[in-house]
Amino acid sequence: MWRDALLVAAKDLRIEARSRVVLNQVAPFAVLVLVLFALALGPDRGPLRQAAPGLFWVAVLFASVLAVQRSAAVETTDSSRDGLRLSGIDPAGAFLGKAAAVALELLVLEVVVGAGALVLFGSSVRSPGALVAASLAGTAGLAAAGTLYGALSTGTRMRETLLPLLFLPVAAPVLLAGTRAWQAALGTMASSAGDPWVRILLVFAAVYLALGVVVFGALQEAS
C-alpha cells in the first residue's frame, strides 16, 4: 500500500510540476481572495488583524476545492482512471497517494497565502509551533476529505459544481478549528489555548484518512 501511495503521489506531483496549475492559477486565486477581503474590511489594521486567521482558512478552503478538482481531473483524461484500476495498484494506496499529493500542493499554497496574510493584515506570530501544527493537521484533513469527495463526484455530469456542494459543508470543522488554532497562535483571542482545536483537526484528518482507505476502491469501481 505504501509503495503504491508513493507511486501515485509521484505521478500526480510530476503532472503538477509540468502543468504548474497550482502555482500559476490556484495560488494567485487564493492571494486574490485575501486582497479582496482586505479591501472589503477597509484600511484599519485592527479588524484586519482580528480577521486574519479566518480569512487565511477561507482562502485555503476555496483554493483546496480547485486543487482537488485538478487532482480528480487528472484521472478523467485519456482513460487514466481505467488504467489506474487495471494497473493492480492498491485502492488504499491510490487514495493515500492522491491525498498526499494534494496535501503537498496545499502546503506550498499555504506558505504563500500565510505570508500574504501576515503582510497584508499586519499580524505577528506568537506561537510558531502551534501555527505549523494547526496548518499540517488542517491540510491533512482537507486533502483526505477532498480526495474522497473528488472521487465521489468524478464521473457525474455536474462534477465541477457537485464537488464544492459536497466538500465545503464537510470541511466546515477545519475552517472553525483552524481559525481558532490560528487565533491562539497569533494572539488575537482571549484564550491562548490552541491545543484543543489542533486535536479536533487531527481527529478530522484521521477519520477521513481511515474512511478513504476503506471506501476509495468502491468509489473507483462505481464511478
What does this structure look like?
Helix content is 84%, strand content 0%. By secondary structure, it is mainly α. The chain starts with a helix and ends with a helix. It has helices at residues 2-19, 21-41, 45-74, 80-86, 91-121, 128-153, 159-170, 172-186, 195-222. The chain has one domain (2-222). The mean pLDDT is 83. It is globular, with a radius of gyration of 18 Å. The chain contains nine helices and no strands.
- Principal-axes geometry comes out as globular
Strand content: under 5%
Return the string of H and E elements: HHHHHHHHH
Note poorly predicted spans: none
Mean pLDDT: 83
- β-strand number: 0
Number of domains in the coordinates?
1
The termini sit apart by 21 Å
Task: List the total number of helices.
Answer: 9
Instruction: Give the helix/strand class.
Output: mainly alpha
User: How big is the Rg?
Assistant: 18 Å
Question: Roughly what percent helix?
Answer: over 70%
Question: How would a textbook summarize the main sheet?
Answer: none
